[in-house]
Amino acid sequence: MSWFKRVKEGIRTETKDKKPTPDGLWYKCKECKQPTSTKEFETNLCVCPFCNHHERIGSKEYFALLFDNEKFQELDANLSSSDPLNFEDTKPYPDRIIASQAKSGLTDAVRTATGKINGLKVSMAVMDFSFIGGSMGSVVGEKIARAIDKALELKIPLIIISKSGGARMMEAAFSLMQMAKTSAKLALLAEEKLPYISVLTDPTTGGITASFAMLGDINIAEPNALIGFAGPRVIKETIGKDLPDGFQRSEFLKEKGFIDFIVERKDLKEKLFTVIHILGTHKKLN
Fold first, then answer.
1. Domains in the chain and their CATH numbers?
2. Considering only CA atoms, which of 153, 275, 177, 146 is closest in space to residue 217?
């Protein structure tokens, strides 16, 4: 049989034996648009090998990256939001919670745990953007408050990795109350002279930025992370002026003194260990 078949409309190549490429084998960077194999991308901690863009990852990946031998004890894993306001937009709030739990495999937008970083025990909270945009409702505030209580109980440092669109509108004032609640708990941690290290990732916005995310004794950010309260578009429309290049990105905030370090994901564990060691809390942990 001839390889080409001439038809009235033109020349058509026979492709009967062509096999479709399976989905999920390649990752296309959102910044530079360069493709790389999914396996290589995941081995590189979900960081683009071409432009160093740090793709969003969740609590599962951070726990695996930071805790020694991926061992940790999860705290309050079964806490789930109720519906105090009987809220309904395009769907009832309880239905939205159930759908998000089924899709993400999480009970809410934060997971908390205790474990060791290079042998030093810490209490850690990691937010997940995949659960309703990492929004903070009453459960997020309560789990972070309990993670702080655990740090106080065990006299160990606290680490919070933020990734959030802000407060959860479906819980209104109940959500906003968590800003004061978590900030007050952090004040107790400061009184005990136990360090709190805040890690800000893309994006950290809204009520999260306005509360615990910017209250760290040391504030660390991943490269090019969006960090701010209101979004750039809202600010531009409000002040009626063009914003500087890189506005609300990690590098801009570091230049203005809001961030202490910008740390690539591959170096995060060693940086956290070094900071804890410098602060002297290793003496209490031995």
1. 19-55 (no CATH), 56-285 (3.90.226.10)
2. 275
